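Why predict the complex rather than its parts? Because the way molecules touch one another can change local conformation, and only a joint prediction can capture that. The input here totals 158 residues.
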Amino acid sequence: MEHTKHIWRISLLLLLVLIGAVLGRHFLIPDSFGKAGFYRYDALVELMGKEPVHGAPDSCADCHDEKALAKAAGLHRSVQCEVCHDVLSSHIRDDDKYADMAINRSYKLCAYCHQKLVARPAAMVQVDIAEHLELAPGDAIPAEACLECHDSENIHAP
Ligand code: HEC
Ligand code: HEC
Ligand code: HEC
Ligand code: HEC
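Output of the joint prediction:
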């Protein structure tokens, strides 16, 4: 009889773990979990209430129709304005401009898509930047190198 002591102890311990798990589940699982599937249903409502960060593809055209038309007619037609600039919400609030839109003049923006890379599909127009700029070996690339020739007159429709 004296050896059953161990059984009682382990049973008690298991019971405590079980109570802990049941209570933990009760308090930690959010109310709306499982209402419509294996997720927290209230999250949908919260996300729907958030202000959109990006605009629709033609959202800049409402106010910048000249730029939008130029771009649509040129080779950058497939590149969204927000890729080279910034998201719509950094510039527009309640249909009005409230802050300047970023203008990225760095050569790094262009290099991101046009730098010659072995892994890049051959169909993408690529340049070897040092060669294209006729840099001497070891020369640093000037920060706004590309816009010296591909300037604001044609960058939206190269
Ligand atoms: C391929 C990248 C790229 C895309 C795509 C692009 N831009 Fe630009 N944008 C630039 C760069 C670079 C400048 C700065 C030109 C300079 O200062 O010489 C600029 C300048 C501007 C300017 C201010 C200078 C000016 O010429 O009046 C406006 C406004 C502008 N962009 C609007 C737009 C809109 C609207 C779209 C989409 C329809 C768009 N951009 C798409 C790269 C881009
Ligand atoms: C509700 C109108 C409106 C929308 C939509 C809008 N803009 Fe503008 N934007 C303006 C106004 C107004 C200016 C200042 C006057 C000007 O340069 O035409 C401006 C200026 C700019 C400039 C020059 C820098 C500055 O802030 O003064 C850039 C670049 C620009 N917008 C890009 C964009 C891009 C890219 C989009 C889309 C993601 C966009 N804008 C959407 C109204 C708008
Ligand atoms: C998000 C990717 C992207 C960025 C960023 C970008 N471009 Fe482009 N660019 C393209 C695509 C796509 C084309 C069209 C290629 C085609 O259809 O032949 C293109 C076309 C061009 C062309 C015309 C090539 C030809 O065949 O004549 C020039 C020039 C050019 N880009 C210069 C620039 C410069 C300068 C910058 C930086 C201000 C820049 N691009 C930024 C994607 C990009
Ligand atoms: C000194 C003027 C000059 C500068 C600076 C310059 N370009 Fe060009 N770029 C040209 C000329 C001219 C062409 C058209 C002739 C050619 O294909 O070489 C061209 C063509 C291109 C093309 C199309 C190439 C093709 O095969 O059709 C791309 C892409 C391009 N440039 C990207 C850039 C990028 C990115 C930068 C900045 C790192 C840049 N360019 C800086 C003058 C320049």
